[in-house]
Amino acid sequence: MARNWYPVIDYEKCTGCLTCFNFCPHGVYGLREDGKPLVVNPDNCVEMCGGCQKVCPTGAIRYNGDIAE
Fold first, then answer.
1. Cα 30–32–37 angle (5° rounding)?
2. Could you tell me the CA-to-CA distances from 62 to 14, 19, 20 in Å, in that order?
3. 62 neighbors 53 (Cβ within 8 angstroms)
4. In a domain, 46, yes or no
5. Is residue 28 part of a domain?
6. Could you tell me the CATH number of the domain that includes residue 59?
7. Span 3-43, pLDDT tens digits
8. HEC per residue, the chain
9. What local confidence, expressed as pLDDT, does residue 1 receive?
10. Cα–Cα distance for residue pair 37/69, rounded to 1 Å
11. Where is each 4Fe-4S ferredoxin-type domain found (predicted)?
12. pLDDT score of 68 more than 60
């Protein structure tokens, strides 16, 4: 699991579709009060997985720790 590489959500792009929340089997995401996803367990993220970013329909996910932040 990753300590320095985890998803960061751009809430200006996020529509709250929960595709990332439903995709991730590692419990990285929880929910905010407004129903949008929230990274609650960043240490559970599998380094270089990138799955939630790939399935996000609005491109609202990037990763802390990417070389080209």
1. 50
2. 12, 15, 12
3. yes
4. yes
5. yes
6. 3.30.70.20
7. 688 999 999 999 999 999 999 999 999 999 999 999 999 99
8. CCCCCEEEECCCCCCCCCHHHHHCCCCCEEECCCCCEEECCHHHCCCCCCHHHHHCCCCCEEEECCCCC
9. 61
10. 21
11. 5-34, 36-66
12. no
Where do we find the tokens 């960061």? 8
Distance, in Å, from the CA atom of 21 to the CA atom of 58, rounded to the nearest integer, reads 14
pTM of the predicted model, to two decimals? Answer: 0.86
Q: Considering the domain boundaries, does residue 69 fall inside one? A: no
Q: Which residues pair with 31 in a beta bridge?
A: 37
Give the residues across from 61 on adjacent strands.
Answer: 9
The number of beta carbons lying within 10 Å of the beta carbon of residue 63 is 19
Q: Which two tokens stand for residue 38?
A: 């929230």
Q: Which two tokens stand for residue 27?
A: 């419990």
